[in-house]
User: Fold this.
Amino acid sequence: MLLTSTRFRGMTHHMPSLTKKIIKGHAYYYLRECQRVNGKPKIVRTIYLGSAKTLLDRVTRPTPQQVDIHEFGASAATYDIACALDVVGTIDRHVPKRGTQGPTVGQYLLLAALNRCVAPRSKAQLGAWYAKTSLHRWLGISPSQLSSQRFWDNMDRVNEGHLRAIESDLSKTAVKHFGLDLRCLLYDATNFFTFIDSFNEGCTLAQRGHSKEGRANLRILGLALLVTSDGDVPLFHRFYPGNQTDAVTFRGVVSELADRCRELGRGACDITLVFDKGNNAEDNLQTVGQGPWHFVGSLVPSHHKDLLAIPREKMRPLDPIQFPSVRSYRTKKVVFGVERTVLSTFNQELFDAQCATLQRETNKRMPKLRDIQESLLRYAAKPRGKPPTVQGVQKKVDTLLQGKPLKDLFTTSVETSPTGLPQFSFDFNEHAWKHLQDTLLGKTILFTDRDDWTDEQIVAAYRSQSHVEAAFRRMKDPFFLTFRPTFHWTDQKLRVHAFCCVLALLIASLLRRRLAQNGLQHSLREMMAILSDIREVAIVYEKDSQSQQPLVRTMLSKSTPAQEKMLEVLDLQRYRVEA
Assistant:
């Protein structure tokens, strides 16, 4: 091996030098850096540069002018699911495009849904978000075409009938293409608070009612969902006025739910519908009993005191592996006019949690009750200001002890004293506390027409209600899939907005399910965060003398192991630009 060293003129011994090595007749170049160590020169760094041709390529390579970075992973993954569902084609079949120019209604609504999946923005900000993603390569839409006014114009063309037909077609595609298991479907309803002005009389959907998020001062919107226990995938939704009760909502949609299940099952599926006690009413249960399904529901425990009185010793322990610390008592009972299988269950974990909650609440109220008592004694000793009244004190006590469990746990008395002023006394009722522990706490009462099922199967079906509750939590996540803020204030646009949010949930749930089937278990938020960090980097070089267009090299950002697995499982490399 021949080794020669060439130093650049003017360089000292500690500066870098170019070294050529002849290996098997070929010349290779290295950059070496030499420094004095303990007074003696020593090579401290060597960098391989390559052959003479490689050096020439590096020297003559055009200089980078700029770097464009676009969000790639989450956009590509959600777009891929949307293509499998044929979202754009389905919407455009029901709401055809007017004219030949500009994006279609399907493209506008798809973009709104993908934005809700990845990084929720208002319609006015969609164009700016879209320009920073790789979606522009696949959709071929200019960001300038995504103004809020164009979105609103296209949303105006979609009526409630269109939305129902589109959702029906998308649900059938999801079941067929992704092989969804329909054996257990979960129904529930929730509501979302809004900031729609109180004096906006043009919006009938946003009403004041019982806010499930405790925002009674704001107008709310109601949303009912039917989801699968297989991946929490929504197959049906209805948008309704926020002041409507769950039972009334269920009455209005149960026939449509039955039709949707007939369409999806095609008579080949053994479907069990699961719902909670808020939907119970005799006419609702009659309709459910006539539907194309079996059902599992729950009952208000306090309406069945005979079942609450059954001691735990008479209850059968369920499978300790599947349901540790759960017992059940099975019987037949007439429920809403029909004899059903009824299951009274006791869950030790639920019992412990409810006991701890009630103890915390009673501990909070004890000092406040003493404050009422002491304030009356202070006024009696030294009157000042407006005198208290029996009615006023009773109102304070009732407000403080709202809710039946708390009211039963305290014995209170508000009376008029000989001086004419109210006097207040209270005591914690230990007997009521013991009775509550022996009867109500930890208990759930289920009913079903699945007489052939075991206790474990009935309990498992009802517990799957958590899937629809999880879907609602995801729609209330402020970072991904969020329903709020709506930025709309007319019934028609609110309905389209709700459809886009449910469509986003459908796409994200199917994506999460696909990853889970390949062993990648992540929450929806984790999944979207991991995918969103995969960027597409385009390096733009200056034009050379022989080219009319600048040279562009495209690559993906460095991936973590989790990102590498997702890219492989979802086969997202096919959406890359070939460098």
Residues 348-381 form the longest helix (34 residues).
